[in-house]
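name: query_chain
kind: protein
chains: 1
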Amino acid sequence: MQNISILGCGWLGFPLAEALLAKGHAVKGSTTTEDKLIELESANISPYLIHTNDDIISSEFLNSDILIVLITSKDIESFKRLIGQIETSSIQSVIYISSTSVYPSSNSVVTEESPTNDSPLAQIENLFRRNTSFQSTIIRFGGLFGYHRKPGNFIRSHNTIPNPEGFINLIHQDDCIGILMAIIEQNIWNETFNACADSHPKRADFYIKEMAKVDRLRPILDPESENTYKIISPKKFISVLHYTFKYSNLMDY
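structure:
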């Protein structure tokens, strides 16, 4: 059993906490909403009200073995403060959830060795990567979907699918949780992984199918699109973690 803190118990963090509890771990979870504290506590997740721009984060929340950072903030100064507090805590290992948006569209296959853009997210990754006080593993997730987050609702503007000849880089919530559990169980630290399904259908094919599922018929393929894209390769983490996807073929989802 390990003590694990999840900074951001939302759409992904809450079911991840439940999965960790089922494996016998003790879990602390943070939220920015007071009303959700009761929900966390009722699920046996020790609840904490934390905003990432707070000058001081609860030392008790950081009194764990592993910290999973699952927030969307790109405030570099807030992360510098957070890392400073982790350095003086009992945290030994950190999983930082990043995004494949750190890669520019290159109309090519992208691996962990591909150049990233000069974005706040890439800079925050480097803050964790260069720190020597604790171990860090960085996960660059593709687009997240599953359960009430339905891909058919992702296209909103005038029912028009942009970049219809581009390719999809998505990952289901269940596979996100499976990958994070595998990293913890196998003690895979000081690594950077791309994580998305190992199938990449064309955007037009995928979204026409998914929009029909939510009764959004006859989408328009944007004729003005430049059709820039990137195809995110998940081969590294599949090899290292020996991971088998639950939702591999996105056209079968």
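note: Residues 99 and 140 are 4 Å apart (CA to CA).
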